[in-house]
Amino acid sequence: MSAKFDPQELADLAASLSRVPETESTAQFLLAEAGRFYHQWKSDRLLRADEIPIPLPRKKALFPANCELEASFLSFRFRPGDQEHLPSQADYQVRVEGWLITSSAVYELQDHWRVDTHIEGIALEDGRGVPHEPHPFFHFQRGGHAQDAFANGATFIPSAGAAINGDWRGLFQCPGPRMPALPMDPILAIDFCIGQGDGKVWGRLRNIPEYFDLIERAQKRLWQPFFKALREPAFQRLWLGTFVI
């Protein structure tokens, strides 16, 4: 097998995912999109997928209390870089949907988190391509553009325009912290998202030899040279951004 990422691996991954009931819909999506992935990769060296169904997170420590989960999705954009361990774009957005039903209302809920790539020259907050806050090259954070769109809807509460009187409490979300994260290709991202949502399902998948082999090869391909490169001060500054003096 090539040391470089091959979109055929997504079809191989789907074969293993189809053997676990909770990931059958993930497998079906990947198989249905296999042709499109191939043509994207051949023409643009890019892989893009929107709303891949992934297993629901386990119902544990959820807010608000008594909410019900309905669906969970992964979207990604992946483009390799000149160095195999440093993709030029590796953005992964997770959206979880749910509901809260009370005696007086029904609330549509969404949670969002992402592993993102910050490319110098994209964020132009100060006109020079340097953000005000430090952005590690690969970073994990809450929120994202999909959350912005959801929260800007007319029926979103709490909001300044909502006609609700009285004092209320609610959770709110800031854009930070942006935690440095390992680079991922789509194989590693799918494995990561499943593991973060439902560790029991993830454990069953990793007991499938073919699945385990795919993940192991992807980790060696991407992370072994990444860890080796971290020994170099220049690469440390690239990965951690302006955190590094």
Please state how the strands of the largest beta sheet are arranged side by side: 1-2-3-4-5-6
Distance between the termini: 40 Å
Rg value: 20 Å
Question: Domains counted in the coordinates: how many?
Answer: 1
Describe the global form: globular
What fraction of the residues are assigned to beta strands by DSSP? 15-25%
Secondary structure category: alpha+beta
Count the beta strands.
Answer: 6
List segments where confidence is low: pLDDT < 50 over at least 5 consecutive residues.
120-127
Largest sheet: 6 strands, antiparallel
Number of helices: 8
Mean pLDDT over the residues: 84
Give me the strand/helix succession: HHHEEEEEHEHHHH
Q: Tell me roughly what share of residues is in helical segments.
A: 25-40%
Describe it.
This protein has 245 residues and is of the alpha+beta class. The protein has one domain. Helices cover 35% and strands 21% of the residues. The protein has helices spanning 8-17, 24-32, 34-44, 145-151, 186-197, 199-206, 209-229, 233-240, and strands spanning 47-53, 68-79, 89-101, 106-117, 138-142, 179-180.
Which short descriptors sum up this protein?
35% helix; 6-stranded antiparallel β-sheet; alpha+beta
Furnish the topology, listing elements before pairings.
Layout: H1 8-17, H2 24-32, H3 34-44, E1 47-53, E2 68-79, E3 89-101, E4 106-117, E5 138-142, H4 145-151, E6 179-180, H5 186-197, H6 199-206, H7 209-229, H8 233-240
Antiparallel strand pairs: 1-2, 2-3, 3-4, 4-5, 5-6
Helix pairs in contact: 1-2, 5-6
Give a quick precis of the structure.
The chain has about 240 residues and is α+β, with helices and mostly antiparallel strands. Helix content is about 35%, strand content about 20%.
